[in-house]
Structures are given as C-alpha cells and as structure tokens.
Design brief:
InterPro entries: FliD, FliD_C, FliD_N. Belongs to the FliD family. Homopentamer. Helix 2 packs antiparallel against helix 4. The chain is 43% helix and 20% strand. It is of the alpha+beta class and 465 residues long. It is built from nine helices and 17 strands.
Length: 465
C-alpha cells in the first residue's frame, strides 16, 4: 500500500480512522449483547458460589451435632491441682470421686564413680542393660569407644535400646580440689517395671572390682533416684501404675499426679460440659443466620427490572435458591418424631426462629433442658429424625457433585465458554470486514488521487490556451 493511499492524501479522508469507526459500529452491538450475557452468567456463578460456601459452613457445624458425641462431652475439676490435675475425655461419665496420691512414679537414675575427664579410658568388654520387665540390650566396648564419652554414645546408639539414656556430668571431685566427670544412666520411663541393672564382662578378667569396664556395672553405680510406681486411692481403692499420667483407672479421665500427699483427699467432679454445648449451639445459630442472610441477599428484589439490575440479588427468581432456603428452615423448625422424653423440637430447648427467619438461642432454657433430660436434648439433634441428622443429609444433597447447585455451575460455565466462542467468531468477522473496507477505501483513494491529478493537468493545459 502506498503512503498516499494509506493516509488518504488522494481523497483527503483519514481512511484508517474511518475504517476503525465503521468496524466498531458494526461489532459493538454484538459485543454488548455478549458482555451482558457474560455479566449475568458470572453474577449468577458468583451467587451460587456464595450460597455453597454458606451451606458448607453450616454443614460443618451440623456435623458436630449429628453423632451425639457433643452431649457426652464432660468436664472434670480437681479441688487441689497442686496434687492432682484431671482431664475428661471420650467415655467419661458424670460422677464424683475422692482420690488420694500416696506415691509418685519415679524413673531410676544411677551415676558412676569419678573419672579424670570425659575422655578418660574406662576399659573394654561388654555391657548388658536389662529392666525388671525383662527387656535388655547389649553394648560392645572396644578400644575404639572405651572412653567415658565413647561408652555414653555407644549406649545411646545401641540397637534395641528403648529403656536407658546416658549422659555425662562434670562436677567437683569428692575433695573439692578439682573437676571430675561421671556417667549418668537414666531410665526413659518411670515405674518399677522399668528399673534397670548393668552387668557384663570386663576384659581385665575381674567383674567385681572398681577397675576397667566393671566401673560401669550396677555394683559400682550410686542410686540417685530409685524406680517407683505411682500409688493412688480412688474412693479408698488402691491402684498402682508405672506413670504419673494415668488414663485407665477412672473411665474417660486422665489423672496427672503432681505431688504425693498421704492422707489428703482430692475431690474430683465430672459433669456435662454445658459450656461446650452452648458454644457449639451458638456456632450453629450463627451459621444458620449467615446462610439465611446470604440466601435473602442473593434473592432480593432491589427495584430493578431484571436479575442484573442494580440492587437485585445475584440469584433473584432462582427456584433452587428458594427451595434450599425453604428446606433448611423446615428441617430446622419441624418437630423430631424420633425424640424421646420431654423435648422434640429446637424451640422447646431454646433455639427459636422468628417471623423474619432469624434464629436465636436462649442459653437459660437450653441449660434447663440439659439438666432435665440430656438424652432427650441429644435426640432432638442426633436421633434418626433429628434436626442435625436430616439437615446434614439435605445439605449433602445440595452440595454433592451433580447436585442442583453443582449442575447450575456446570451449565453456567458451559454458557460462558459458548459466549467466549461467540465473541471470538464476531472478532474474526470484524477482522475480515476491516480488511475488506481497508482494501475498498484504499482503491477509492487511489482512484480519487488519479482523478485529481488528471483534473489539475487539464486545468493547467486549458489555462495556457
């Protein structure tokens, strides 16, 4: 294309701008229509995402109420935590106990005699470390590891050692005139069953003296702490365990022994954890109201004339939205046919829905119901027709792959893909139109330029006659 024709010098017309404007005028209505449809689809897609998020949050809380374990959650208190701390867990039941801690469990700790330093040579041979329960392991001591440090490391790294830890302390000697090193052996677990002895063979031929490897044998070790079992009394009944954290004496309770106080009784009370129940039901109410607000906002009419009009909800007029909101409210408010006892609905235990669809919790009424009939309150939520049971099933249907909301999302995504293809088709058509118009206007410009040149020639020729 010549410079003259491309710039419209022949005709005086800005061909590039003219073609661009004509092409834009041709394509803008189609692009505007596609954009409106894309905006509407994206708005609905976002609305469904918001609805699914609120439903999922609500389902998470509903799940905590569905299996009934919440109403088996207990709390335990101790009247003197300096002696005994207590924690209630799965399987605990309400009750009171009088406990006495007469002895704490202890781990054995033994210490060797004095050595000049941690690198001092001890001797060679073998060590056998065995517990009262019958577990044991062997340590070979050779010229490569016969120092105090080498023996420490050999014990700690020995295959099968699950019972003893070795360490070295550097302390004043017996006369207070210098520093010496000592090997310390400590049982990894407390209790009499984990008490240990050190025996073996000494390459110097004498296992009974205080020279060579026999310096590490039990006969030459000093007891810094003797192994002991924990001994407690529960309502006067004695229980002996190897640890100070006891989980198998009172069902569902963990007893952490802190100090032994012979003759001092600590009262332990186990009761339903009303605070945990109230906290979970508060979360239930909050999640329900969030779902209610979300559904209301998504379906609201804001005065516009269409779903995409300003002020309208993203899912205005959507039948699925109305169905979801209706089902959740009905399942929450309807009586529970499988409930036993005095209570068979949320309203009867203090969870109510007002005329505007807003849920609230009366903690006083709930606690009264819990005290009067715990099983009945549990049935309201977790029995076969319980509120949480039927809600969870309904929510699962709404949220599952292939469900009504997922199907709408899939359909809208396909619609957006189709609209994208349409946009691309329109652009191809406009690109072709631009090429055609450019070619036509360029040809016109060249022709006009030729006519003007001929006209100028004739005018000059005539003026010279």
């Amino acid at each position: 294309m010549s410079i003259v024709s491309s710039t419209g010098i022949g005709s005086g017309i800005d061909i590039g701008t003219l073609v661009t404007q004509l092409v834009s005028a041709e394509g803008q209505p189609a692009f505007n229509a596609i954009q409106r449809q894309e905006d509407a689809a994206n708005t609905r897609l976002s609305g469904i995402g918001s609805l699914k998020s609120a439903l999922s949050d609500f389902q998470t809380v509903v799940n905590k109420l569905k299996d009934g374990n919440l109403f088996k959650t207990h709390k335990a208190t101790s009247t003197d935590e300096s002696i005994l701390k207590v924690t209630a867990g799965t399987g605990s039941v309400a009750g009171s106990y009088a406990l006495e801690v007469t002895q704490l469990a202890k781990a054995q700790k033994s210490i060797s005699g004095e050595f000049a330093s941690s690198t001092a040579t001890v001797g060679t041979g073998s060590l056998t470390i065995a517990t009262t329960a019958g577990t044991s392991f062997d340590v070979a001591v050779t010229s490569s590891n016969n120092t105090l440090t080498g023996i420490r490391d050999a014990i700690n790294n020995a295959s099968g050692n699950t019972t003893v830890s070795a360490s070295i302390v550097n302390v004043d000697n017996s006369t207070g005139t210098g520093t010496v090193s000592k090997l310390v052996l400590t049982a990894k677990n407390s209790g009499l069953a984990n008490a240990f002895t050190v025996t073996g063979s000494d390459d110097d031929g004498n296992t009974a003296d205080t020279a060579g490897l026999s310096q590490i044998f039990s006969t030459n070790l000093s007891a810094q702490a003797a192994a002991a079992d924990a001994i407690i009394k529960v309502d006067g009944q004695t229980a002996t365990r190897s640890t100070n954290s006891i989980t198998d004496v009172v069902q569902g309770l963990t007893l952490d022994l802190k100090s032994a106080q012979v003759g001092t009784k600590v009262n332990v009370d186990v009761s339903l954890d009303n605070e945990a129940v109230n906290k979970t039901l508060t979360s239930f109410v909050t999640a329900y109201n969030k779902l209610h607000t979300t559904a209301k906002d998504l379906g609201k009419y804001g005065g516009g004339t269409g779903g995409s009009s300003s002020g309208n909800g993203a899912l205005i007029g959507d039948a699925t939205l109305r169905y979801v909101a209706s089902q959740v409210r009905q399942d929450s408010a309807n009586p529970v046919s499988s409930a036993t006892g005095s209570y068979n609905s949320l309203a009867m235990i203090g969870v109510k829905i007002d005329k505007d669809g807003v849920m609230s919790l009366d903690s006083t009424q709930l606690n009264t119901a819990l005290s009067a009939s715990l099983q009945s309150v549990s049935d309201v939520f977790s029995s076969t027709d319980g509120v949480a049971t039927r809600l969870y099933s309904k929510l699962d249907n709404f949220l599952q792959s292939g469900g009504p909301l997922d199907s709408q999302q899939t359909s809208l995504k396909k619609q957006l893909t189709t609209l994208g293809d349409r946009r691309a088709d329109v652009q191809v058509r406009l690109d072709n139109l631009q090429k055609t118009l450019q070619k036509q206007f360029t040809a016109m410009d060249v022709s006009v330029g030729k006519f003007k040149s001929t006209g100028s020639f004739l005018s000059n020729w005539i003026s010279k006659l």
